[in-house]
Write a structure and sequence with these properties.
Layout (H helix, E strand, L loop, with lengths): L2 H11 L1 H20 L1 E2 L9 E2 L4 H14 L6 H18 L7 H14 L2 H21 L8 H81 L4 H27 L20 H10 L4 E6 L7 H21 L6 E8 L2 E8 L15 H11 L3 E6 L5 E8 L12
Parallel strand pairs: 3-4
Antiparallel strand pairs: 1-2, 4-5, 5-7, 6-7
Helix pairs in contact: 2-3, 3-4, 3-5, 4-5, 4-6, 5-6, 5-7, 6-7, 7-8, 7-10, 10-11
């Protein structure tokens, strides 16, 4: 950073010092101008003159007031206007004390609004020019009197232009900062939604397959000594369920890899086309499952198809975990107008909170999936015993789903 840049940064950090430097420069200009007589000389050059003590005192007072122009711009304008009026009415020869009022008027215009600038500027221009014309020692048509009007007008216009540009730059910066905050909030929201989606998928995969593994492992341990053939069959089911869990976990975790990763999974997401296969896994685990479908010929979007599959998977998993060893389940998929209705019934004890004991998130995940697609999901005990899960999914999802890319 150069010396000039460091000096500029320091002055911006210390505005009072900058105003003191400006006041010193204005005082030097006023004093230098007070020694010049534009009406002296031989017509080709200006003559010299000597300002009186009153003029010098008024110049010092006007310049000193400018030191506080940022803190109290109106008060500084009033003070510099007052000393300028005294000089305009009594100075002979006249000294350029009005320069301090010009600077003060510029400050007011650059720090206030446009209506205030118009009012204060017109009053300052009118009063100073009128006093110079009517009470000053020069003729009213002297160019110095007209110069006061011109300089005060330009000061008000320049200050208003600076204020407008500053407001414009501030508005642009504010919009940019707001846009940046919006982008950051949107990024955080998308990250949170993605984490929720991944957690929901992992829960669906792990809860389903681990429940099956647990059941089959319990069967194998129970019949290991007396019926080794049945224990061997149960262990085979354990192996198959664990292999399926690993494959689905690999597919889900693969979504977290970079897009160019050659090992990313390419297997399609599960859907209702695999419903019979899903039902067979539960039948092998000892849960009788009946499936009825009246949706043939209906092509579902990938997100809706996946959501329907996950709802049935989670509902059957809850039946196997909580409905008891004698429970049976019924699954129906029906096309009703623009929607597909998925229903899972069981004949278990029908306890309200049973599927979510131990802090589970199965029902919550189902509702989130269905709601994200613009559908609805209800779950609760059936009259006379058992539990019912009912989901209504639009055939054409109206809301972008979080699971579209799964």
């Amino acid at each position: 950073m150069s010396t000039l840049e460091r000096t500029r940064d320091w002055l911006r950090a210390h505005p009072l010092a900058l105003d003191a430097a400006l006041a010193t420069g204005v005082l030097a200009s006023m004093v230098a101008g007070s020694f010049v007589d534009p009406h002296g000389g031989n017509g080709a050059t200006w003559g010299a003159r000597t300002p009186n003590a009153l003029s010098l005192a008024l110049m010092v007072l006007g310049a000193a007031a400018l030191v506080f122009r940022r803190r109290a711009p109106m008060a500084v304008l009033a003070a510099t206007g007052a000393v300028s009026l005294v000089e305009l009415a009594t100075g002979d020869p006249r000294a350029p004390v009005a320069m301090s009022a010009v600077v003060a008027l510029y400050t007011v215009a650059s720090t206030t609004d446009r209506p205030t600038t118009w009012r204060v500027g017109l009053v300052t221009m009118t009063v100073l020019t009128a006093v110079a014309m009517l009470a000053g020692p020069m003729p009213w048509y002297a160019q110095e009197n007209l110069g006061i009007f011109a300089w005060t007008g330009m000061a008000a216009a320049a200050g208003d232009a600076v204020r407008s540009r500053r407001a414009f730059v501030h508005a642009i910066r504010e919009r940019a900062e707001r846009a940046e905050r919006t982008r950051e909030e949107e990024a955080r929201r998308r990250v949170a939604e993605e984490r929720l989606r991944i957690a929901r998928d992992l829960h669906d995969v792990v809860a389903h397959h681990i429940a099956l593994v647990n059941v089959q492992a319990g069967v194998a341990a129970h019949v290991m000594d007396k019926r080794p053939d049945q224990a061997k069959e149960a262990l085979a089911h354990v192996r198959e369920a664990s292999r399926s869990a690993l494959n689905e976990l690999r597919a889900t975790v693969g979504l977290l890899r970079q897009s160019g990763d050659p090992e990313a999974p390419t297997e399609p997401a599960p859907g209702l086309a695999r419903l019979d296969e899903l039902a067979d896994t539960f039948r092998n685990a000892g849960l009788p499952v009946e499936v009825a479908r009246c949706d043939h010929g209906t092509t579902l979007p990938a997100a809706v198809d996946l959501a329907a599959y996950r709802v049935i998977q989670e509902a059957l998993t809850n039946v196997r975990k909580h409905a008891g060893p004698e429970a049976k389940a019924e699954v129906s998929v029906v096309r009703v107008g623009p929607n597909v209705e998925v229903t899972v019934l069981d004949n278990g004890p029908g306890q309200d909170e049973a599927p979510e004991e131990g802090g589970g998130h199965g029902l919550l995940g189902m509702r989130e999936r269905v709601t994200a697609l613009g559908g609805s999901c209800t779950a609760g005990p059936r009259y006379g015993g058992g539990f019912r899960v009912h989901a209504i999914l639009p055939v054409k999802n109206r809301t972008p789903a979080l699971g579209d890319s799964v």
